[in-house]
Amino acid sequence: MSNNSEKNFIFHVQNFGSRNDTVFCGVFDGHGPLGHMVAKRVRDVLPLKLTDDWKCGESREFSASSPGNSASEHSTASPKEEIRDSTKFEEKDEHSQNLKMLKNSMLKAFTNMDKELKQQPGIDCFSSGSTAVTLIKQGQELVIGHVGDSRAVLGTRDKNNSLTAVQLTVDLKPNLPSEAERIRQCSGRVFALRTEPDVLRIWLPNDDSPGLAMSRAFGDFCLKDFGLISVPEISCWRVTDRDEFVILASDGVWDVLSNKEVVDIVASAPARSSAASCLVQSAVKAWRLKYPTSRIDDCAAVCLFLDAEASNISSIRTRSSNATNAGCYEQESTGGEGPNGNRPDPSPADNHPTTTSP
């Protein structure tokens, strides 16, 4: 894994795609010699691919509903049927269709992003790649798409009003039986080194390299014929008044802090704008305590607060390069703008997470 000081990137924007009720957040953690370039490219391009797909979808809907469209002319429903159906089922159907659209858009964006990386002349992605954990909040719906071991966790209140942690994603690593089976069926090998017996890695069929510790990622094209994929796992959650915030973070945070510890740190931050900073500082301290002779893994975090207050996003990443010095912290804007201040504008259900893995 690259020791580059800027291998992880964060992104957040409110009014995403020129939609007032929509927020997009993401954490992208690079690995390999050019992992920092891969992560940056994914951060910059993936949101645009999402909004481009939304615009194409809106154009298709407008075309389908235009006068003279065959579907409009050949409707077979009677007026009574239309009234009866619209009163009870229209909202539910619209809700289901919107969720389906968001999930399909995310799947398509991830797929096209990986294709673009393969054709990118300025970035050699053969043995470099990036994780991604991305979240779209539209109204009360959360749609999370991810590859790799960056994670999303919800801070919510239980029936006793105690703050609890709900993990919204599954770390996509070779230790998952279904992931390992896919890799082996594609002739890839899965095993752990003697020096770290608890860490399963992906290896080429006839070469003890590269030893990637995740089963899905952008880039890493040396392994794409041997079981590594960039297909995201997509999870959905309907927000209730018990849900307080969502944390997206790279594995540098989760490797040293439990989900509950992370939720408690964010909840106890003195201000929302400093929540991500408090979290990353706590992770760095935990690294120093638990692994004093090891290099501190770079950490990135985004905290999205789920109520209606204006300043509801906090994010930060570390820029570190050695075991004893965590370097500096780079605070991203908390008002909802994207990297470098750019705003991308290419412009009661069961409250349990549902997961699809296309």
UniProtKB/TrEMBL annotation:
Polar residues: compositionally biased ranges: 62-78
Compositionally biased intervals (Basic and acidic residues): 79-97
EC number: 3.1.3.16
GO MF term list: protein serine/threonine phosphatase activity
Region spans: Disordered: 59-98, 324-358
Catalysis performed (reactions): O-phospho-L-threonyl-[protein] + H2O = L-threonyl-[protein] + phosphate; O-phospho-L-seryl-[protein] + H2O = L-seryl-[protein] + phosphate
InterPro entries in the record: PP2C, PPM-type-like_dom_sf, PPM-type_phosphatase-like_dom
Keywords from the named record: Hydrolase, Protein phosphatase
Top class in the EC scheme: hydrolase
Name of the protein this chain belongs to: protein-serine/threonine phosphatase
Lineage: Eukaryota, Viridiplantae, Streptophyta, Embryophyta, Tracheophyta
